[in-house]
Amino acid sequence: MSYVPTLKKIYAEQIVPELVKSRGYKNKHQVPRLVKINLNSGIDAEADKNQIADVARDLAAIAGQKPIQNRTKRAIANFKLKPNQITGCSVTLRGNNMWEFLYRLLAVALPTIRDFRGVGSKLDGQGNYSLGITDFTIFPEITVENVKKTMGLDITIVTTAETDDEGRELLKLLGMPFRRVETTTAPKATAA
What we know:
Blueprint: H1 6-23, E1 34-42, H2 49-63, E2 68-71, E3 86-93, H3 95-109, E4 129-133, E5 153-159, H4 164-174
Antiparallel strand pairs: 1-3, 1-5, 2-3, 4-5
């Protein structure tokens, strides 16, 4: 019997039936699902080879697979970029790696952020969600002693949802801690 990640099992056994019931899908294949998760980290234009290697090593530890290095296509003087210069590292996660990373992100990494009140609930209009993390040391795979310079991390979760509401409901059921929008109304002035 093959290994099934915890979050994938929860999705199949609990979330799919709940979405079929709440959204009125006629077929379980209409239920939105995760396609992939992209991780991206930028590198300074003046970064030396050691810093590029450190970012690639840390991103590989977080993702569980080797990142690719993104290079410039042409020179841009205003940004001090030369042709074929490394400007970042990225990883695309699919399958079990995607489910394992999302579980670690939701259950371990995000709750360790100090004064964490949730993440923004705005999606891209097509059911996909992007999240920016300013300090990657929230992941337990990273040892703080080896970090010379903190890096940020962009996380994009790509779904098959056709609308933002479908994507938001899917992510909420998976455990994404969306920030609550509090509506405060000012007291109405009464005429005397």
